[in-house]
Amino acid sequence: MTQPYDPYSVLLPVRTFALRSVDIADGETLGVAQRSSLFGRPGQDRSPHLAWDGHLAETQSFAVTCYDPDALTVSGFWHWAVFDIPASVNELPAGAGNASGERLPVGAKMLANDAGRHSYLGAAPEPGDAPHRYMFVVHALDTPTLDVATEATPSWLGFRLVAHALGRATLTPFFGIPA
User: Fold this and answer.
1) Which of 14, 71, 95, 98 could form a disulfide linkage to 77, CB 3.0–4.6 angstroms apart?
2) Across the chain, what does the average pLDDT equal?
3) What is the C-alpha to C-alpha distance for residues 164 and 95, in angstroms, rounded to an integer?
4) Do you know which Pfam families this protein is assigned to (predicted)?
5) For residue 40, is pLDDT > 90?
6) Where does the pLDDT of residue 1 fall: very low under 50, low under 70, confident under 90, or very high at 90 and above?
7) What DSSP string describes the chain?
8) What top-level class would CATH report for the domain 16-175?
9) Does the reported pTM lie above 0.90?
10) Rounded to an integer, what distance in angstroms lies between the CA atom of residue 120 and that of residue 79?
11) Cα-based distances in Å from 156 to 50, 54, 152, 153
12) How confident is the model at residue 4 (pLDDT cuts 50, 70, 90)?
C-alpha cells in the first residue's frame, strides 16, 4: 500500500515537540466545529484549541498553520496561517482564527487562507473524495518576527518557516464526505 504524501518529510529534519487539543486528535475525524459551512454543509469554521510544550528553550516565536495536502489541486490547500506568535505563548483558544483576530496573542499576524479569507477555513473536501488530512502544525522559530507581509500567501510563509524552524509539532485529523 502506498503511504500518503507527507509534505514535511522532504524538509530538513527538526526537533519535534508535543501538541495537544481538546477539539481535535491525531488520526481522528474532525468535528463539525472545525468543518466549513462555505458550501452549504454543516460546519462552523472554528479553529481548534491548540496547546504545545517541549519546544527548545531557544525558541523566539511560533507560527501555526493548517494545510490539506490531499486537496484536489497541485499545491494542496492552506486553511490557516498565523505567525509572529510570541515565544511566551503556548496555547491558542478555540476560535482564535476568527476574522477579527481578537483571540490571537498581541503581535500575532494572520494571513489570508487559500480561499482569500483572513480567518481559519474549516474542512470542505469534495463529496466522494477519499478523506483528507488536515495538518495542524505549530512551528517553533529562531526569530521573534518573520519578514513576511500580511498580504503574502501561506506558501510564502511556509518557505520562510523552513529557513527559521527549530522544531515542529503536528496533529493530523481527517475528514471526508461520502458520495
Assistant:
1) 71
2) 96
3) 27
4) PBP
5) no
6) very low
7) -PPPP-GGGGSPP-EE-EEE-SS--TTSBPPGGGB--TTSSS----PPPEEEE---TT--EEEEEEEETTSSSTT-EEEEEEEEEETT--EE-TTTTSTT-TTSPTT-EE---TTS-SS---B-PPTTSPPEE-EEEEEEESSSS----TTS-HHHHHHHHHHHEEEEEEE--EE----
8) alpha beta
9) yes
10) 6
11) 23, 27, 6, 5
12) confident
For 141-170, the pLDDT digits (tens) are: 999 999 999 999 999 999 999 999 999 999
Distance, in Å, from the CA atom of 63 to the CA atom of 14, rounded to the nearest integer, reads: 15
- Find, among 15, 23, 77, 21, the residue nearest to 46 by Cα: 23
Domain ranges of the chain: 16-175
Q: State the cell numbers at 114.
A: 487559500
Which comes out higher in pLDDT, residue 2 or 57?
Answer: 57
Q: What's the order of all strands across the beta sheet hosting 18-20?
A: 18-20, 50-53, 91-92
Residue appearing with cell numbers 522559530: 141
